[in-house]
From TrEMBL:
Domain called 4Fe-4S ferredoxin-type: residue spans: 76-105, 107-136
Any one GO molecular-function label of the UniProt entry: metal ion binding
InterPro entries: 4Fe4S_Fe-S-bd, 4Fe4S_Fe_S_CS, ACT-like_dom_sf, Fe-S_Ferredoxin, NIL_domain
PROSITE patterns in the cross-refs: 4FE4S_FER_1, 4FE4S_FER_2
Name the UniProt record assigns to this protein: 4Fe-4S ferredoxin
Keyword Kinase: no
Keywords tagged on the record: 4Fe-4S, Electron transport, Iron, Iron-sulfur, Metal-binding, Repeat, Transport
Phylogenetic placement of the source organism: Bacteria, Pseudomonadati, Thermodesulfobacteriota, Desulfobacteria, Desulfobacterales
């Protein structure tokens, strides 16, 4: 069994189409949706764990690309550079999983990496660029 976590971005025109269901139906792949949502410019995003044979995986990814979907490996993790963070709270407004949240009554922003789905929405939202994307191999297994 081959398995990978992928980050998908769907163009506005494709958001309503059952593209991911087609992966299961026509490419014999299993999928587990780790995170999904709509970005401010109405693009869709999804973090998806896809499992199947290597051949089916490759065919499925090709299908996604043919539909105009941006496909990237989620071979990265998010870290907070605590020396840069000013606890302004801007990132908590965009974090869809609650990984970034305000601790009360201290009003400090906490980062729970276990809840992070690596959607990267916090990276551009952070004024001092304290949220950083770093490479990791831990999301890959065969
Ligand atoms: S990448 Fe940032 S916004 Fe996305 S889940 Fe992780 S902490 Fe939250
Ligand atoms: S947006 Fe950046 S500086 Fe503000 S609380 Fe989040 S990580 Fe810290």
């Amino acid at each position: 069994m081959y398995s990978k976590i992928l980050k998908l971005r769907f163009p506005v025109t494709e958001v309503q189409k059952p593209i991911v269901c087609t992966l299961a139906r026509e490419y014999d792949l299993f999928f587990n949706i780790l995170n999904a949502g709509i970005l401010p410019r109405k693009e869709g995003f999804m973090v998806l764990e896809i499992s199947g044979s290597r051949k089916d995986f490759k065919a499925g990814v090709n299908y996604l690309k043919e539909q105009g979907v941006d496909v990237q490996n989620a071979s990265s993790e998010i870290k907070r550079n605590t020396s840069k963070c000013t606890h302004c709270g801007a990132c908590t407004a965009v974090c869809p999983t609650g990984a970034l949240h305000v601790k009360r009554p201290e009003m400090e922003v906490e980062f729970d990496q276990q809840k992070c789905s690596v959607c990267e929405l916090c990276v551009p939202a952070c004024p001092p660029r304290a949220m950083e994307v770093r490479p990791t191999n831990q999301l890959f297994f065969e």
